[in-house]
Design a protein that fits this description.
The complex is a heterodimer of chains A (118) and B (530).
Chain A (H helix, E strand, L loop, with lengths): L1 E4 L9 H5 L5 E4 L2 E5 L10 H5 L5 E3 L11 H7 L4 H5 L18 H14 L1
Antiparallel strand pairs in A: 1-4, 2-3
Chain B lengths: L6 E10 L3 H12 L4 E4 L8 H4 L13 H11 L6 H14 L24 H14 L3 E3 L4 E6 L5 E8 L5 E12 L19 H9 L3 E2 L7 E5 L14 E4 L4 E2 L8 H9 L2 E4 L5 H10 L3 H7 L9 E7 L8 E2 L13 E3 L7 H4 L5 H27 L8 E2 L16 H12 L2 H4 L4 H21 L6 H24 L22 E5 L5 E5 L5 H7 L1
Parallel strand pairs in B: 1-2, 1-6, 2-3, 6-14
Antiparallel strand pairs in B: 4-5, 4-15, 5-6, 7-13, 7-16, 8-12, 9-10, 9-11, 11-12, 16-17
The chains are: A alpha+beta (118), B alpha+beta (530).
Chain lengths: 118, 530
């Protein structure tokens, strides 16, 4: 679930407040949005995708708050990873992040083939 | 503190829900020249099970359609309709490429444009942009609470809450309403489904519509136990183990029944060691969230064994939903349309799960049919906004008796205790279903008699009511269908019974009823015989 809004990166654009499908954030006047309803988070990572400042971190654990540490996450290089992997915004023409989603079919076919031959 | 501001507007067509089918509905209606309002509980672009996933459409070139329809018919338990399949395949083929100026369809190594499979977030962002460019007015964070009806029983609009506008209300008067509220996975933590609480079913049934195929609501998908990542593609390479490390024989093709059986016996672990290296290297570009989720949890899925579970998909990958009665996806309530996972998908999937491919194609085409049909209907009959529109919501909004302090979390937990356990919902029996229904009926009595909340808390009250109601429709249908067909497998009636080669309708609120839809001729059976 959503764990961090990183103040030093946040531009206070409040896009996360708008795009979160479960209304987890509240805007703050002259401040970064706050995580107001963490338990409503559905761990879908959509907020990270829309955060151009890479100021949000969603932990993959959907049941428990992992209490991650801001300094550690910032140092890990994981901020903005989902946006990069998705070739979103400024990453859209990056050769390492081309949209290969259409290769899902190949994945299924090879898995099925392997299963058959076992 | 935001001062609540109420919003009263008029439109030709109101679309409730901004996922895949709702967005296509709004686009199709606007292309017909209709004025369109789309309301979403969350945000049109991120809401729903498509935005968070990667839909590959049922995408078959014209030369191979007869074969695809024949194969699908043979798997459908005799409940699908080849004519509808042909319409859906043809419309998907024609309409999906029209998104090209909004979605950059990739070109593969052979220079062929790839239309079939899209990434969810990009797909929904593109649809939103296209809808806005066509003049669709989108109200985000505006969950619908109830429908409005004219005196003659036709739909007159809907009203709801603006949860980011201080809990003010919205009311849209419209000549046609399209329910695109998604399926219901009972808040199982299936990816993207937390807002899909069956609201559309409840609104439709209150208005007098029926549901169909609600017994086909027990598909489950594998995920790491801590995670919402029900992205199952990688698991074609999975090896499963019990707690002692012994390899388990999990049949990949049995609708996850063998995995469910193993999970009932104990904890189950998994790795993806069989995935070839070249696919591992590309996985982040094929499914951007999957490896990221593992890495953040400190798991290398190719070498580490990680614990897995099954997440219930309810009617999301089930095939049941609101019954539609004509080729425009209209329900039996005049002017009320149902699309996507909110509508029954038995027409193309029958008793099995259509999976992501059929469901995506259905979301697109049902949205297209309904949007176009709704716009044409209003062009003929007008918006009728000067007639009285009566709000008809009951459970969770207007309790039948005294208001009592009910904990919605307890109500939802009560529903989940019946709908999630594999031994209740996957391995079904008459005795088990009857026991569940007794408990769900008691929950319904509490809800309809006493549940009420104010302001934005009304949203949760209404969701709770919809979840209880949906569970009762699913299990009443499952209890009535005393046979096994498709995903609905009764341990006490393990074979198909020819008398049940019909769709099963279910409806009603206090008294839930069922009726075999004798009008649903098993055409696929006829075509198979021929």
């Amino acid at each position: 679930m959503i764990e961090l809004v990183i103040d030093s990166r946040c531009t206070q654009c409040n896009l996360c407040v708008q795009v979160c499908p479960t209304n987890v954030f509240d805007p703050v006047i002259n401040g970064s949005p706050v995580i107001a309803r963490q338990s409503d988070c559905q761990t879908c990572n959509m907020c990270e995708l829309y955060c151009q400042a890479d100021a949000l971190y969603v932990s993959p654990d959907c049941e428990h708050s992992s209490g991650v540490n801001e300094a550690e996450i910032t140092a890990s290089g994981r901020l903005g990873e989902f946006r990069r992997n998705s070739g979103w915004d400024e990453w859209s023409n990056h050769p390492n992040h081309k949209n290969l989603h259409h290769q899902m079919g190949e994945m299924f076919a090879r898995g099925a083939q392997m299963k058959k031959s076992r | 503190m935001v001062i609540p501001i109420n919003l009263d507007i008029e439109a030709d067509v109101l679309v409730i829900g901004g996922g895949l089918s709702g967005a296509w509905s709004a686009i199709a209606a606007a292309q017909q020249g209709a004025s369109v309002v789309l309301v979403d509980k969350g945000y049109c672009g991120t809401s729903g099970v498509t935005a968070t996933a990667g839909p590959g459409h049922w995408w078959v070139d014209p030369d191979h359609r007869d074969e695809a329809i024949r194969v699908q018919s043979s798997r459908s338990g005799g409940l699908a309709d080849p004519g509808w399949m042909a319409r859906v395949l043809d419309t998907t083929w024609r309409i999906l490429p029209t998104l090209a100026s909004y979605y950059p369809f990739p070109v593969d190594d052979q220079g062929i444009t790839q239309y079939r499979a899209l990434r969810g977030p990009e797909y929904l962002r593109a649809l939103r942009q296209m809808a806005e460019d066509l003049g669709v007015r989108i109200l985000d964070h505006s969950p619908a609470l109830e429908l409005l009806l004219h005196r003659d029983g036709s739909v007159a609009g809907a009203r709801g809450i603006r949860r980011q506008a201080g809990g003010g209300s919205w009311c849209v008067r419209a000549g046609a309403v399209i329910l695109a509220t998604g399926g219901c996975a009972f808040m199982s933590r299936l990816l993207g489904s937390q807002t899909n609480t069956g609201d559309g079913y409840l609104m439709a049934v209150e208005a007098g519509a029926e549901l169909s195929g609600m017994e086909f609501s027990n598909y489950y998908t594998v995920a790491p136990i801590y995670s919402t990542q029900t992205r199952s593609a990688s698991y074609v390479f999975a090896t499963y183990f019990d707690s002692d490390g012994a390899e388990l024989d999990i049949d990949w093709g049995d609708g996850n029944r063998s995995l469910a059986k193993a999970l009932l016996a104990g904890r189950v672990f998994c790795n993806l060691a069989r995935m070839p290296q070249d696919l591992r290297d590309r996985l982040s570009q094929i499914q951007p969230a999957v490896l990221l989720s593992f890495a953040r949890q400190g798991i290398d899925p190719f070498t580490d064994k990680f614990e897995v579970t099954l997440r219930g998909e309810g009617t999301v990958r089930g095939s049941g939903g609101i019954r539609i009665i004509d080729e425009n996806c209209q329900t039996s309530v005049p002017g009320l349309f149902a699309v996507g996972d909110a509508a029954t998908r038995e027409l193309i999937a029958g008793a099995i799960s259509g999976g992501g491919a059929q469901n995506s194609a259905w979301a697109l085409t049902s949205g297209y049919f309904a949007g176009r049909g709704a716009a044409r209907l209003v062009r003929g009959s007008g918006r009728r906004v000067h007639e009285e529109g009566i709000a008809i919501g009951k459970a969770g909004i207007h309790p039948a008796h005294s208001v009592m302090a009910l904990d919605t979390r307890a109500i939802i937990a009560g529903v989940q205790q019946e709908m999630e356990p594999f031994d209740k919902n996957i391995f079904r029996s008459g005795v088990g279903l009857r026991g569940s229904l007794t408990r769900l009926d008691a929950l319904w009595q509490d809800v309809r008699n006493h549940l009420y909340a104010e302001g934005v808390d009304l949203i949760k009250a209404r969701e709770s009511a919809a979840l209880v109601a949906t569970a009762r429709w699913c299990y009443t249908a499952a209890f009535t269908r005393q046979e096994s067909r498709g995903m609905h497998i009764r341990d006490d009636a393990p074979m198909p019974d020819p008398r049940f080669t019909h769709r099963l309708l279910v409806g009603g609120l206090d008294q839930v009823w069922t009726q075999l839809d004798e009008g649903s001729e098993p055409e696929s059976i006829a075509s198979e015989a021929a």
